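Late entry, evening session. Most of the bench is empty. Finally got around to the prediction I had been postponing all week. Sequence below, unchanged from the version circulated by S.P.
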Amino acid sequence: MSAHRRRAQQIGAELVAAEKDLDALFAERVAGTASVDQATQKVAVLQGQLRAEHLKTHLLANAILTPAQVEQYSRLRGYGTTPGTPVDGVAAPASVHKHH
């Protein structure tokens, strides 16, 4: 898990830098269609990599947890015992991150 965390932190730092580069194009008034395309594609690739790393961490967690721990983890994330269902018939608040 620590390897996934390090990889996510690395990708996150690269993503922040890529976003700053994109912002700088506009702040410095040098943005053009090609540079914006290139910069936004870089941001998008990094966002995808970060998302994939996050999901791979969930896969790893499910592989090493016991079924009871997986159920508790799901409940804590706002899911019922069946993945994707609300707990006790009440949906989790919108602030709960559960896009996967």
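Two things to note before I forget:
The longest helix spans residues 33-64.
Confidence is low (pLDDT under 50) at residues 87-97.
Will write this up properly tomorrow.
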